[in-house]
Amino acid sequence: MFKTLLTVVTEAARAEATITAAARLALAHDAHLDILALGVDRTQLGYSYIGTGAIVLQASLDRSEQDAREIEAACKAALVEQDPTLRWSMESVVAQLGSLSDLVAQRARFADLVVLPRPYDKDLGSEAEAVIEAALFEGQAPVIVVPKTGVGQADTPRRIVLAWNQSAEVMTATRRALPLLQQADVVVITVIDPPNHGAERSDPGGLLCQMLVRHGVKAEVSVLAKALPRVSDILARQVRDQAADLLVMGAYSHSRFREAILGGATRDLLEQAEVPVFLAH
Questions:
Q1: For position 164, what pLDDT does the model report?
Q2: In angstroms, rounded to a whole number, what is the distance separating the alpha carbons of residues 73 and 75?
Q3: What average pLDDT values come out for the chain (281 residues) when binned by 10 residues?
Q4: What pLDDT, on the 0 to 100 scale, is given for residue 216?
Q5: Which of 27, 118, 121, 139 has the most CB atoms within 10 Å of its CB?
Q6: What is the spatial distance between Cα 131 and Cα 35, in angstroms, rounded to a whole number?
Q7: What is the SS3 string spanning the chain?
Q8: Distance CA 161, CA 114 (A)
Q9: Per-residue pLDDT at 120
Q10: CB atoms within 10 A of CB 188
Q11: Comparing C-alpha atoms, which of 125, 115, 132, 127 is closest to residue 246?
């Protein structure tokens, strides 16, 4: 059950879309929505002249505080448009890029689900990706990443594509997504180019399907050949072909030693996703 949802807003211009998506999910699950209005100090001082450092730092802090106030005001304006039964609370904070991850991770640890906008757009700063990474890798929380088109039917999804590759990350995502999977009319477990040798060689996705069915999920398995160079392209096409409302997948990192860098497959999917993506690590 999702009873505490968290969203983090770092741009006033994106507040309305982000709040609307998070509010719909919170209402669908009778959950409380926590909102973090986050003003980010983007100053990266490589050097400064004697006597100027304090001035630069204060100017940057003032700008970040103003950003936080504007984000808070935009969030409140968006909340007025939501269903009056929505339960919510909001905190306005200013953080430097270096401390942003700790702040978001600490809040995410106490949320059942984090709802965030897609982080890859040319007009967005690096903090958008840093927020998702902090929630996933350090906060160990599941995240729904919402595209520009909004949450769609992902608050009560009818058709879900679940990307299965036998990894621990996907297993974690599957368990975390169970409340959504159980609501769906069908969950299509999608296996791409399964290995000829391995535990599932004779029945790819079969054990996962069995587990989900025992949880009351209406699941089926779809095995696809790797007909395109990138797995992300095949999954995107599968989502379209299945008219899916939601994609569930594991979140992968480039390095086991520095996890807060989204892996290539995860990033590729988020860059082109047309429906919300449920991620867990």
A1: 96
A2: 5
A3: 96 95 96 96 55 62 89 98 98 89 96 94 79 94 94 92 95 97 97 82 92 98 93 94 96 57 73 92 92
A4: 98
A5: 139
A6: 13
A7: CCCEEEEEECCHHHHHHHHHHHHHHHHHCCCEEEEEEEEEECCCCCCCCCCCHHHHHHHHHHHHHHHHHHHHHHHHHHHHCCCCCCEEEEEEEEEEHHHHHHHHHHHHCCCCEEEEECCCCCCCCCHHHHHHHHHHHHCCCCEEEECCCCCCCCCCCCEEEEECCCCHHHHHHHHHCHHHHHHCCEEEEEEECCCCCCCCCCCCCHHHHHHHHHCCCCEEEEEECCCCCCHHHHHHHHHHHCCCCEEEEECCECCCCCCCCECHHHHHHHHHCCCCEEEEC
A8: 20
A9: 80
A10: 21
A11: 115
Task: Look up residue 98 and give its amino acid.
Answer: G
Q: Please count the residues of the chain.
A: 281
Q: Where in the chain is the domain with CATH 3.40.50.620?
A: 4-146, 159-280
End-to-end CA distance of the chain: 18
Q: How far apart are CA 195 and CA 74, in angstroms?
A: 50
Q: What is the pLDDT of residue 55?
A: 55
Give me the phi and psi of 229, to 5 degrees please. Answer: -60, -35
Model pTM above 0.70: yes
CATH of region 4-146? 3.40.50.620
Cβ–Cβ < 8 Å for 146, 120: no
**Two tokens, residue 185:** 């009319």
**Closest by CA position to 160, among listed 24, 31, 278, 270:** 278
Q: 68: Cβ–Cβ under 8 A, 6 or more apart, which residues?
A: 37, 38, 39, 92, 93, 94
Strand partners for 6: 34, 114
Question: Which class does domain 159-280 fall in?
Answer: alpha beta
Longest dimension (CA), the chain: 70
Q: What is the pLDDT of residue 48?
A: 43
